[in-house]
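Design a sequence for this backbone.
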């Protein structure tokens, strides 16, 4: 590609968008679950990983029991006070089928006005200002998570400042690594899965993701010089030493909010795609929304 891909322009807007939903939470988040409610968070692909992050963080902050499911795996018959459904396009088959099938209160977060999810959900939070031209999601996903974090009482200003730092990090050497495995703990496990997905989508690259404590139970066997292990959030005791002993590159932005580290990972995925002559805006075999017939 000779021109700047849309995804590069879009991911650079994330700091401002996080501030927008954080400071304007009353406007965007009034319909979100209240503390003490039992909640399910649902999505597909990237949206599922944001749901995973939200669910773990909500529980860790003492806001209430929260589960996360892929849209196709929602357990029929389980009771919740609210179901938060994340879908950028508002047209994904699995989440629309879920909303149609459940009698539970549903809250949709989407970027697409006039999409079916707007009519089906009980409440809709419209983040159309965070929509994207690129098939590969970046800013909608993280802006959604920023909104959800704000709804839990978190101040996103430092995260936004860290994201600005992340936009200036040199990613050339990271993009040259043969393989990357991403790990996290609790809410950052979802970020690890999302970072791995970005490289698979944009660059058709071999990536993996695991809970950090589980990484040593087998996956560490692929670590070696020329490959990397990317740690989101706090590193469990001994993990850095164990990875270093393999000769693999350790990537750990301990001084950045984990969402800002994800911004670095997004940039690495784009850089790797461009180095391979791929179009990161239009990955092979992917479309903006999965609509099943």
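Sequence:
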């Amino acid at each position: 590609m000779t021109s700047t891909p849309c995804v590069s322009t879009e991911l650079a807007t994330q700091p401002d968008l996080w501030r927008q939903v954080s400071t304007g939470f009353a406007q965007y988040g009034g319909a979100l679950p209240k503390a003490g409610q039992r909640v399910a968070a649902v999505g597909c692909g990237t949206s599922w990983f944001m749901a995973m992050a939200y669910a773990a963080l909500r529980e860790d902050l003492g806001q209430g029991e929260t589960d996360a499911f892929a849209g196709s795996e929602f357990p029929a018959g389980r009771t919740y006070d609210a179901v938060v459904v994340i879908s950028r396009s508002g047209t994904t088959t699995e989440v629309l089928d879920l909303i149609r099938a459940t009698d539970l209160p549903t809250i949709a977060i989407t970027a697409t006005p006039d999409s079916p999810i707007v009519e089906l959900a009980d409440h809709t939070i419209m983040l159309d200002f965070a929509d994207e031209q690129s098939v590969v999601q970046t800013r909608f996903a993280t802006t959604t998570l920023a909104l959800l974090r704000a709804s839990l009482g978190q101040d996103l200003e430092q995260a936004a400042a860290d994201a600005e730092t992340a936009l200036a990090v040199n990613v050339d050497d990271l993009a040259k690594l043969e393989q990357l495995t991403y790990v996290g703990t609790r809410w950052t496990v979802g970020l690890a899965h999302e970072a791995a997905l970005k490289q698979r989508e944009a660059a058709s690259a071999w990536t993996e993701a695991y809970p950090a404590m589980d990484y040593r139970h087998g996956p560490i066997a692929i670590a070696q010089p020329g490959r990397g292990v990317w740690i989101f959030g706090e590193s469990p005791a001994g993990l850095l030493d164990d990875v270093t002993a393999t000769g693999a590159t350790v990537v750990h932005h301990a001084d950045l909010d984990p969402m800002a580290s994800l911004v670095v990972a997004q940039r690495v995925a784009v850089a790797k795609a461009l180095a391979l002559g791929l179009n990161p805006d239009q990955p092979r075999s992917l479309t903006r929304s999965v609509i099943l017939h």
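The two ends are 33 Å apart (CA to CA).
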